[in-house]
Amino acid sequence: MISQDLRQLRIGHGFDVHRFADCFDPAKPLILAGVELPVEKSLAAHSDGDLVLHALADAVLGAAAEGDIGRLFPDTDASLAGISSAIILQTALEKAGGKGLKLINLDLTVVAQAPKVSPHAEAMRESLAALTGLPEGNINLKATTTEGMGYLGREEGMACHAVVLMGPDV
Length: 170
Ligand code: MG
Fold this sequence. Notes:
By secondary structure, this protein is an alpha+beta fold. It has a single domain (4-168), classed as CATH 3.30.1330.50. It has helices spanning 4-7, 51-63, 69-72, 85-98, 121-132, 150-153; strands at residues 10-19, 31-32, 35-36, 101-111, 139-144, 157-168. The strands form two sheets. A four-stranded mixed β-sheet has the order 1-6-4-5. A two-stranded antiparallel ribbon has the order 2-3. The longest helix is centred in the middle third of the chain and has 14 residues, at 85-98. The structure holds magnesium ion. Magnesium ion binds at residues 16, 18, 51, 54.
């Protein structure tokens, strides 16, 4: 039998992918989980392209049954050009908060052949802790490649999977 407390837990999943821009634009640095990576790569995106925060925001909206970030922030809206993904995540957290849901833990997997993400994983975790208010012990961030296979293996872009658990704000 499932207790009433367990029934209030909500799981959410998010996935995002962005392709690399044809050339590096210093005005559009590579930002992952709110951290600017020191690499000469830019992502093609209407926002700042932070696919880690996009996947996370979608996971939060998923847990709250609130749709997806494309609905909240349409890429056809010119006023949203270059928007910081921290705002997107904050909006998702507020939507979930409106339903009495707070993050419990999150698990993220960045998939990319290049650039290497693991050297920046700790900085990204710290940033995620600041952005979500979660202790770092409740945040996991992994990085993997596709062993050269497929569009990510050909270094055409990067992707991120996010899973969150949310529960009542007690
Ligand atoms: Mg995106």
